[in-house]
Specification:
This is Aldehyde dehydrogenase domain-containing protein. Residues 20-330 form the Aldehyde dehydrogenase domain. One of its GO terms (molecular function) is aldehyde dehydrogenase (NAD+) activity. Keywords: Oxidoreductase. The chain is of the alpha/beta class. The protein folds into 3 domains: 3-108 and 316-324, Aldehyde Dehydrogenase, Chain A, domain 1 (3-Layer(aba) Sandwich); 113-305, Aldehyde Dehydrogenase, Chain A, domain 2; 340-370, no CATH class. It has 13 helices and 15 strands. It has helices at 14-27, 41-54, 67-74, 87-99, 122-133, 155-170, 186-197, 199-202, 252-258, 273-282, 318-323, 348-358, 362-369, and strands at residues 3-8, 31-35, 60-62, 80-84, 104-107, 113-116, 147-151, 205-207, 211-212, 217-218, 221-224, 241-247, 265-269, 287-290, 311-312. A 7-stranded mixed β-sheet has the order 8-11-12-7-6-13-14, sandwiched between helices. Helix 4 (87-99) links the parallel strand 4 and strand 5 (104-107). It is globular.
């Protein structure tokens, strides 16, 4: 039995992000210490209350708390550390793991791009982008679309379609919609407000922008052609804000994406199979989805994880089992079939047989099994 530490820092869908790796770890025969995110205290308390009631307390322990408790956990020696959260804390986790040479799985985030070609079914594309962005916890998900890239000529059509879809989804006043999630806490609300109010960005809002700080609600907000050096384009948004960037030709999106850190997911809407192949080959991302957003996360037959800044390792389905398993090589030999050629003193005939065995030559393999060359 191995000792596993699972730390959840992401505040969205914490039930899934916390329990999915726990299931894989337990299935693989490990004991687990689970540290839920202090950013979602209600869910953390619920897990701390329910897990001991329904599972063996010798296999799973839930530890609540903040930085102090997390630091104390990381100072212990574990057989595996699994962390979901942002890259800043991911570096802290990796540093702590390195002290004991503990392997770690990091499921981080990043700026997930959506490239939209002009040949798509516009209404369906807009619905799927909106569902993946605002329907997925109002953008508070690691695989939520972070920004769109499309051509300058197509951007007005895409924007108009998104506006229609969002009004249908959330009404004329989205802040009154029961289907729009709140921002998880006041700290994140303030961070998002700062992104919206930055001087070089505030005049780029082309849809939405309403907010209610008391209710911790921000309406779906779309920006057009924000500067690349603005804060909203330098950090993962993790909220209901969606910039649209424009290029002259759709292939220019490749260079733009590759100039940034590798994302957890990359999305492309197009009917062009050649463009799909080029996108798949040119873009490095944790996962990739064509003509939809976010739903690859639900497929248990696909590994889910990042690359580079967006994480290391993967889980979901059997991949969760594999993440918490060690492939131990075991070989068992009998005492027959002694090959004299492997032992000193070496001679030209022995070396000839050994070389033939390494090259897979049947004659030399038979000679080795039969104990040739005779003598020493």
């Amino acid at each position: 039995m191995l000792r596993v530490c699972a730390i959840a820092s992401h505040t969205h869908h914490m039930r899934v992000l916390s329990l999915d790796p726990v299931i894989g770890a337990i299935a693989a025969g490990n004991a687990v210490a689970l540290k839920p995110s202090e950013g979602a205290p209600a869910m953390s308390s619920l897990l701390a209350e329910l897990l001991p009631r329904f599972v063996d307390g010798t296999c799973i322990k839930v530890i609540e708390g903040g930085v102090k408790e997390t630091t104390a956990l990381l100072n212990q020696k574990w057989d595996k550390i699994f962390y979901t959260g942002n890259s800043r804390v991911g570096r802290v986790v990796m540093t702590a793991a390195a002290k004991h040479l503990t392997p770690a799985v990091l499921e981080l985030g990043g700026k997930c791009p959506v490239v939209v070609d002009s040949n798509v079914d516009l209404h369906i594309a807009a619905k799927r982008i909106a569902a993946g962005k605002w329907g997925c916890n109002n953008g508070q998900a690691c695989i939520a679309p972070d920004f769109i890239i499309t051509t300058q000529a197509f951007a007005p059509k895409l924007l108009e379609s998104l506006k229609k879809v969002l009004e249908k989804f959330y009404g004329k006043d989205p802040l009154l919609s029961a289907d729009l999630s709140r921002v998880v806490n006041a700290s994140h609300f303030g961070r998002l407000k700062g992104l919206m109010d930055e001087e070089m960005v505030s005049d780029k809002i082309v849809f939405g922008g309403q907010r209610d700080e008391q209710q911790l609600k921000i309406a779906p907000t779309i920006f057009l052609d924000v500067p690349l050096d603005s804060a909203i384009m330098k950090e993962e948004i993790f909220g209901p804000l969606l910039p649209i960037l424009t290029v002259d030709k759709i292939h220019e999106s490749f260079g733009l994406i590759n100039s940034m850190a590798k994302p957890l997911a990359a999305y492309l809407f197009t009917r062009d199979s050649e463009l799909q192949n080029q996108f798949e080959g040119a873009i490095s991302a944790g996962g990739m989805l064509f003509n939809d957003t976010s739903i690859h996360l639900t497929n248990p037959y696909l590994p889910f994880g990042g690359v580079g800044e967006s994480g290391t390792g993967a889980y979901h389905g059997k991949f969760s089992f594999d993440a918490f398993s060690h492939r131990k090589a075991v070989m068992n030999r009998g005492f027959a079939g002694e090959a004299r050629a492997r032992y000193p003193p070496y001679s030209a005939p022995k070396l000839k047989i050994l070389k033939g065995v390494l090259e897979g030559k049947l004659g030399d393999m038979i000679q080795a099994i039969l104990g040739f060359p005779r003598g020493k």
